[in-house]
Amino acid sequence: MSQQGKEHKTVGSFRDWLSDNLEIDAIRKENIYLDICRSVSLRDVSYWIEVLFSAGIATVGLVLSSAAVIIGAMLISPLMGSILGNGLALAAGDVILAMRASIKLALSCLLAILFAVLLVSVLPFKEMTPEILARTQPNILDLVVALFSGAVGSVAICKKPKGVVTSIPGVAIAVALMPPLCVVGYGFGIAISVNMVNGLRVARGGGLLFFTNLVAITFTSMTVFLALHIDSVRAKQRIREWRRKHRESGWVKTILELFPESKRLKKIGSLPGRFLLIIVTILTILVPLYQSFIQLRQEIVTKQQENNITSAVRNIWQQEFSNSNDGEPRSFINQISTRQVNQKLMIQLHIFTSELYAPEEQNYFIELLAKQLNKPPELLSLNLIEIPTAQSEILNAIPEEESPEPIITVAELQANFLQEVKSSLLNLKLPPPAKLINYEVITSPNNSMAIRIFYLSQREIDKDAQVLLANDIRQRLNYPSTKVSLKRIAVNPGNIAFAENSTVLQPESLETLDKIASILKEQPALNLKIIANQKPEEATDTNKTRAKNIEDYLESKWQINKERISPEIGKESQTNAILTVSSEQ
């Protein structure tokens, strides 16, 4: 027997041994092949519903940063069938199955991404939660997880149903195909509505993680299907008979026959060629994955070094400096912070102490720490911040002066109260495009405190966002019964119409200007832009005169400072002036 024949016999023996131990007989192989071919059907309505539901659950889970909700989306795992179909197609050289599985997978990904983009556009808040950020920087470890998951998933599919029930949920969670795909949709949604650069960065990270899982699972499933010899002669014969009656397979075959090279596509190249194709793909994605892995390793090393330094600082201080010579407690550490500057380690130490430390003691601490860290003392710098305690000699040395308690006036109480409200509402953010302009506080002896928020926006804040915003304000004020109301100031409060060849303000225009002027008087932070237009047949500078008349009216009747009014010449062929309110100079 030739050497090639011996190798072929050895491979066949291994396949038989593996199939026997996994209880996969010839009939089971036929059923596996047939089930996977059926699973890539485009006409399965329930599958597309699962894709939508899974994408919706995953997107909401990512926004809420809820691991439990995201796991729920993982359990549905509708994309697994198409990916296993690609693996079996590569193992068997089945071009029809490969095309059907690839088309279904591409359409599924597109549907999930578009649905995620739609959800992101509807949601009022678009924050980068930890669950989203965790899926934007995949590394080699994610590839390893996907390789193992793909292998286990393929084996679980091939085994008889008695063992699948306990293994499939774990496999679906480990593979986690839908969450990274929804991160891509989330990134595109952010790019469209908030920030193009950050959104595309998130989409790129999620896409790399999904593509890593896709390639790894395809590779391992291909290997498992080859090892089990799913594409046996009997299985292929049964598939050929099934395809004669299957419409989708017939359509794919008809499309292939339209190309001149269709005869060469009956088998997807040689087996080594198919392995080479997917291995080259894995090696390609290893480059960005390895870079992320190096960055992760550097962050871990840096964190470990910081922990070691912090531990050394704390141990040395507690052993040598926390107690006085008589054994009484002298100080304790409140906070430790370290940073590296030009190879020099800067240590900032916050302590509470009853006795200040002399420079000699601080230098001795640096010497002990340098010895512990195996560094020269010259490369260490200590910034000791000492906070005296009630028993401190410094505080005891200061004579206490008895002074009468000052009488707080009503005006001071009001000022303190308003300052507390101002501090609580500092950095209050409204959902875009709304912009906070001002607020007013209303108190009454018979009712709870009320606060009214004035904001500038093209549209009303939706009801759900109003509820969330009101709860946020109550938490900031630590006043659960506060009544919160929102009042919108329109960006475009109205236009001023003029008769043709006229610059005189009409009565209805004066009413509009009076309303706008009252808003400007109430809200000093707002400014007004006037864009005056005219038709080509009107006299020259008619638009300038119209803008000046509006400006003069607001100044003379309402005493609106002209510095808050910005007249501009419009380019539209209209006999009007467009008014725009803004909070910028």
Number of strands: 10
Spatial strand order of the main sheet: 7-10-8-9
Rg from C-alpha positions?
A: 36 Å
Shape: flat
Q: Percent helix among the residues?
A: 55-70%
Write the H/E string, N to C.
HHHHHHHHHHHHHHEEHEHHEEHEEHEHEE
Number of domains: 4
Low-confidence stretches: 163-167
Major sheet description: 4 strands, mixed
Secondary structure category: alpha/beta
What descriptors fit this protein?
585 residues, GMP Synthetase, Chain A, domain 3, four-stranded mixed β-sheet, three-stranded mixed β-sheet
Overview of the molecule:
- This protein is an alpha/beta fold and about 575 residues long.
- The chain folds into four domains: about 15-270; about 310-395, GMP Synthetase, Chain A, domain 3, CATH 3.30.300; about 410-490, RimP-like superfamily, N-terminal (GMP Synthetase, Chain A, domain 3); about 495-580, OmpA-like domain (60s Ribosomal Protein L30, Chain: A, 2-Layer Sandwich), CATH 3.30.1330.
- About 60% of the residues lie in helices and about 15% in strands.
- It has 20 helices and ten strands.
- The chain has helices at about 5-20, 25-40, 45-65, 65-75, 80-90, 95-120, 130-135, 140-160, 160-175, 180-195, 195-230, 235-245, 245-255, 270-320, 360-375, 395, 410-425, 465-475, 505-520, 540-560; strands at about 330-340, 345-355, 380-390, 435-440, 450-455, 485-490, 495, 525-530, 565-570, 575-580.
- Strands 7-10-8-9 form a four-stranded mixed sheet, with helices on one face.
- A hairpin with a 7-residue loop joins strand 4 and strand 5 (about 450-455).
- Helix 3 crosses helix 6.
- Residues about 165 have low confidence and may be disordered.
